[in-house]
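Below is one protein, fold included:
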Amino acid sequence: MKSRLPVIFIIITVMLDSAGIGLVMPVLPKMLQSITGETLSQTSIWIDLLAFTYASMQFLFGPTIGNLSDRFGRRPVLLAALVLMAGSHLVFGLAQSIWLLFVARVVSGITGATFSTANAYMADITPPEKRAASFGLVGAAFGLGFVIGPALGGLLGELGPRAPFYAAATVAFLNAVLGYFVLPETLAVEKRRKFEIARTNPFRAIMRLRNVPGIGGMVVILFLFGVAQNVYPSVWAVFTMERFAFSTGMVGISLAIFGLCMALVQGGLIRVVIPRFGEWNVARAGLMINAVILMMVVMISSQVILFILMPVMALGIIASPALQGIMSKSVPADKQGELQGVLASVQGLAMVVSPLLMTSLFWVFTADWAPVYLPGAPFFAAGLLMLAAVILLSRMRK
């Protein structure tokens, strides 16, 4: 049990990171209305800006957090981030000004970038051939957090729109205390390297990875995967309401089921298929499954079929840890943090680009003047992006 406590700590930390994304969803509209006095329609602009702020911070600070963990170790970065996360949730809950909400969201986005350090920690304690499975476990924790966040926000929101943030702040602080006692450092002093400001620029960091054989193309594939995969949080609610007349409650239930399926795939199935078929084959299969299923969503007309296909939709997530496993083997121990930081930035950039692209496509193809009524257009576009990723991966493999 003692040897498992650090892994449990990492899982809780990642769950808190992802829960922080969905925690605000159920209560933010009412909270913003109480602060600004604006209508529900007007507050939607603030909601979009807050989401953009969070994703932008993850993109900008991913390499910084990763490089800090390569210089000072994983333990201090993770513990400091948890304390800051607790503070940001507390500020968010106490805020009486819209600008304080943005300050809190900036800090949350930066601390959310510690997802990269969590992956670096798992890479440190896992042999190369098992890293994809460990990344899958971290991904499963992220998926569970995606389920828990909105559920926790909705449940505690009944006590008041600020209650979920006080609870999240408490859990983050208690997890920091747990980590202080159970989390050992995994990056030996002799493997640490000097912190360089130039390496924290996300654009330069991404470009620098082009010099590592095979990594540049993999980063492009991961970006395409991220933009396509983010179609679900971007337009799932409006798509299911438009196409299947889902209620708000049904949207929440469907997202919870989907998140649970993803957690089971990344936490369990990935440990079976990677050793048996290899990372390259699993990555290609995952991308192909995604490409096919996303294009099928466009043609679905039955709620029953939609729910039946959800486990298959979730199955495609196996591509992500497989791709991370391939890339992790390409860099030494003292650059694992930097690599994971860049990958966090790539995922953050995908979280910025995807909503803009997918919501625009949904609007264009559902408007009164739309050339063709096609609410599933964003999913078709996501399928094309996945297909492009499959082609690029196949060419790299050759």
